[in-house]
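Deliverable D2.4 — example input (structure tokens):
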């Protein structure tokens, strides 16, 4: 269950709703890059949360969540969560590496993003509890869609960097992770394969 962007529900996980002072909750996400043909035309796979959820309803994020005790490491967390949320088989992911960690300001998570390529033609199986849709957004559209937007959350108005692609608004920790991805992703070699620098 993805829970890195909102306080965990103690009835589900046994974890306190908020971390103790100074304590960070480790979490991981996967940035799956769908590659079909030319790697420079890759698409980033994201999820849209269900509109009827109590927290962060309808928001766009990367598949991921907090580390379970059974996960040997945070890479395993990212792969497990992607499999649970959108039915992405771990064996279909070719990991490219990790991006810098991102913290959530209000909820105390430290998110470890991992990047991997996946083949075209996968059939998504959405988690009925949390995922409303899978989005496959071209990297070029994300680059072109970076802007700033004034937003209001919990009565507080603020201006922040966002990515706007068609009607899809991406902000917060997910936008910061995408910024790192676009800065570090490159294609190289004879076949133009994607790598992280």
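Example output (designed residues):
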């Amino acid at each position: 269950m993805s829970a890195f962007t909102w306080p965990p529900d103690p009835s589900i996980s046994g974890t306190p709703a908020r971390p103790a002072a100074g304590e960070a909750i480790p979490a991981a996400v996967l940035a799956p890059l769908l590659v079909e043909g030319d790697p420079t035309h890759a698409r980033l796979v994201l999820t849209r949360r269900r509109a009827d959820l109590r927290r962060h309803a309808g928001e766009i994020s990367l598949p991921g969540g907090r580390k379970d005790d059974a996960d040997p490491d945070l890479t395993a967390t990212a792969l497990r969560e992607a499999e649970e949320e959108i039915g992405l088989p771990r064996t279909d992911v070719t990991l490219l590496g990790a991006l810098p960690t991102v913290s959530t300001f209000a909820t105390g998570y430290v998110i470890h993003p991992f990047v991997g390529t996946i083949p075209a033609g996968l059939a998504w199986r959405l988690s009925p509890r949390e995922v409303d849709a899978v989005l496959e957004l071209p990297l070029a559209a994300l680059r072109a869609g970076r802007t700033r937007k004034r937003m209001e959350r919990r009565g507080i108005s603020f201006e922040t960097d966002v990515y706007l692609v068609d009607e899809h608004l991406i902000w917060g920790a997910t936008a910061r992770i995408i910024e790192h991805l676009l800065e570090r992703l490159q294609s190289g070699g004879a076949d133009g394969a994607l790598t992280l620098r």
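Confidence is low (pLDDT under 50) at residues 1-19.
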